[in-house]
Design brief:
The protein is of the alpha/beta class and 243 residues long. It contains six helices and 14 strands. Helices cover 29% and strands 27% of the residues. Strands 1, 2, 3, 7, 8, 11, 12, 13 and 14 form a nine-stranded mixed beta sheet that branches. The chain has a three-stranded mixed beta sheet with strand order 5-4-6, covered by helices on one side.
Amino acid sequence: MQQIIRLLPFASADGATNMAADEVMLESAIEGVASLRFYTWAEPTLSLGYFQSAAERTGRLAALAWVRRATGGAAIVHHHELTYALALPPGKQWTSTENWICRMHHILQRVLCSHGIESHAVVCGEEQKLGPVVCFLHQTAGDVLISGSKVAGSAQRKMRGALLQHGSILLHRSEYVPELPGIRDAAPEFRLSPQQLADELCAAFADDTGWLIQPGDWTAAEQHRLSVIREEKYANPTWNEKR
């Protein structure tokens, strides 16, 4: 039987809304609903990994709007980028023989290759940390590199057998972290908008998995939960500053 995954609408939102939406996807996955979505950020935003200290927001990063993620890892400046979120229910039919982080990054690599862009996936033994605080200065297994610079990284959270994975695809250098070039900086001929790249990734995902991607929308119950979670956690200074 072919697996069906809901494609949620492409959207741009503030950090608290984006992170609450991802958490709602995880809750729905626990109940058996698989979802995929692509999104951007309404303003340049710093997201801290769940275990990072809020005190690490220093220098240029201190001026940014910020939110704490429910996933681990280091800080990410979400500016000129595309973000994806994938939520999969429990069950063998949703598992992958390849780690989902590597699988999603290989899908991205195939899309880049179709545009004549060569990239490299970090393998074990090649990991390196090029600087503190910022995630894209820490190259770990599965990350996608172009000309030695990280352009895609992902993180996961698991709950009651369900999986949430979200990741950042850096399209262009941000003035807040100028040391991090994006895809367009290395390959100026790459002119896809975030929406166009999302469409190509969606098609490549369907080809790779064989799953049926079915456009859908948030349910009324999910929209209510999103609002509640946003206010209780991601838009709540006490929660964001818990460390």
